[in-house]
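Q: Is it fine to ask for two folds in a single conversation?
A: Yes, each is treated on its own. Send the first.
Q: Here.
A: Result:
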Amino acid sequence: QVQLVESGGGLVQAGGSLRLSCTTSGRTFSTYTMGWFRQAPGKEREFVAAVRSGGVSTYTDSVKGRFTISRDNAKSTVYLQMNSLKFEDTAVYYCAARVGAVHVTATHDYGYWGQGTQVTVSS
């Protein structure tokens, strides 16, 4: 069983930055594709970014150039550096893990989820 724990959320002004972290249990972190999703009030959970075991990353268009996903296999941790935050980035952010790397943008592709961390951007 893989457990994921997110941290780093909070309140920030528009234009500011936050870095989210997600630490996982288990010994096979390096083999997982790790993803970040977010869910705003009244909306469906949506894909933000993913990084495959080999380091290749994918982003949704709305965060390209502003967010960076990275992983530290030695620490079993994935990060989401969020810069130039906008009001519309406000959401609960979830970390997720999956085996495999072909399809990485849908929630049903992932078998393991964290509890989420709130990010609030004030305008």
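Q: Second one now.
A: Result:
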Amino acid sequence: QLQLVESGGGLVQPGGSLRLSCAASGFTLDNYAIGWFRQAPGKEREGVSCISHSGDYTHYVDSVKGRFTISRDNAKNTVYLRMNNLEPEDTAVYYCAKRLGCGSYIALSWDGWGQGTQVTVSS
């Protein structure tokens, strides 16, 4: 089964940092763009960032630009999301998913969803 597995979430104070990991199970990541999404309680799932299969293109939504950094290590079959200067509004379950390319955060166009990892930003 082609699936992604997220890890690295936790409880952090405002202004703190976390690094999320997205590892592939059953396939190699280097053929796919990887997107990070998040879903807060009572809200729809939203796209956060995307990285192309080669890593030479990245995209961030405005709310995380300058604070989050997406990267990938294809040798380790893993994509990362470094999150700095976290805010309470970043609290959500974070998911990663795969697609042939970036260009859309419409959830139905992505697959391989993992179980998510909880990020809670609170003092």
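Q: Anything structural to flag on that second result?
A: Two points. The chain has a mean pLDDT of 95. The longest strand covers residues 18-25.
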